[in-house]
Design a protein that fits this description.
The protein is mainly alpha-helical. The chain contains 14 helices and no strands.
């Protein structure tokens, strides 16, 4: 087990290294093709003083001559960037000269709240609906669950968000505030935008909506996995012993169906990173997705790289946790 963890950690570090290099190379190509982003520091059509421009380029690591050669991977700036990241220096933004670490301290907690709620939503709904459909295979309930989840999954997240904001949220907020008051839980729960004074309450509905991403896929995975176990010998033995259906389902079927489900949850978590950009943008949530989107618009190269690096780290860590959970869920699995 220990050797496996070390091996997986080394693989994770190698994967992160490759991802960081690709991000750096794409950034270098962007600078080489589109021009020096340090010019944005001066704004508009203003012609900067050469000495001042050189100082700004040196400050933000854009003074290397490799940025003038299209296709050059700029290995020296890449190594210097890795050294700064390893030392905890995340740099500053081009516009406003704000510390990137301070920005992450604001944005990451909001994205974590969103992901916690969305993950709980998709796992809970998929387990309930998938188990319900598996127990009633071929019935109207089974067909209805599959059709409903596929219908929900086929609707783009941004369309669900806009429909909620402009059709559902406004009347419900007005109704709730008229009964319980503006500062009440219900008065803030249906709010159409994020409120920093109520970070958890106003992020519940966006998290639930984001949780619909991949619901159909995970529900079908739960159903297929449980159907496979319902016909297994250990389930027939449990029935022959006279165990109750609920105990058979929870102890034998659900637990032995968790390995493919945990794998699906790991992939969905990574997939929801893209949905977070839309969710945070529409609902006005100051999170990582919105930060990266705005940084791309403003050509804040360092902010984009740091944000994508954090996202890559999260995906790699989730993949590692999923692998380690296999042995916990199934004692027969051993990492030798």
């Amino acid at each position: 087990m220990g050797r496996y963890i070390i091996r997986r950690l080394l693989q994770a570090l190698l994967t992160l290294g490759i991802v960081l290099f690709l991000l750096h190379y794409l950034m270098a190509l962007s600078v080489q093709v589109r021009g020096n982003p340090a010019l944005l520091f001066f704004g508009g059509e203003r012609v900067p003083d050469p000495a001042m421009l050189e100082q700004i380029e040196r400050l933000y690591g854009l003074d290397s001559p490799c940025y003038e050669r299209t296709g050059d991977p700029c290995l020296v700036p890449f190594v210097e960037r890795l050294q700064r990241l390893a030392s905890g220096d995340l740099g500053t933004t081009l516009q406003g000269n704000r510390d990137v670490g301070d920005l992450l301290a604001v944005y990451i907690p909001n994205t974590l709240r969103l992901f916690i709620i969305s993950t709980i939503t998709v796992v809970t709904l998929a387990m309930l609906l998938g188990t319900w459909a598996a127990r009633r295979r071929g019935s109207l309930v089974d067909h209805s669950v599959r059709a409903t989840t596929i219908l929900v999954d086929s609707i783009p997240v941004f369309l669900i968000l806009l429909s909620y904001v402009y059709i559902i949220s406004v009347p419900l907020t007005k109704w709730a505030r008229g009964i319980w008051g503006t500062d009440s839980f219900m008065g803030q729960f249906f709010r159409p935008s994020y409120n920093p004074d109520y970070p958890w309450v106003t992020i519940i509905m966006p998290g639930i909506i984001l949780g619909t991403v991949g619901l159909a896929t995970l529900t079908r995975l739960v159903r297929a996995s449980q159907l496979e176990n319902l016909g297994a010998d250990f389930v027939r033995t449990a029935k022959a012993k006279g165990l109750k259906e609920r105990r058979i389902t929870m102890v034998h079927v659900v637990r032995n169906s968790m390995i493919p489900i945990v794998t699906g949850v790991g992939y969905l978590f990574a997939f929801m990173l893209s949905g977070a950009v839309l969710t945070e943008g529409v609902m006005g949530i100051p999170g990582m997705g919105r930060m990266i989107f705005q940084a791309v618009q403003r050509q804040e190269i360092n902010l984009v790289l740091v944000g994508l690096t954090v996202s890559a780290v999260v995906v790699v860590v989730v993949s590692l946790v999923v692998d380690l959970l296999y042995a916990v869920l199934d004692p027969r699995i051993r990492y030798d």
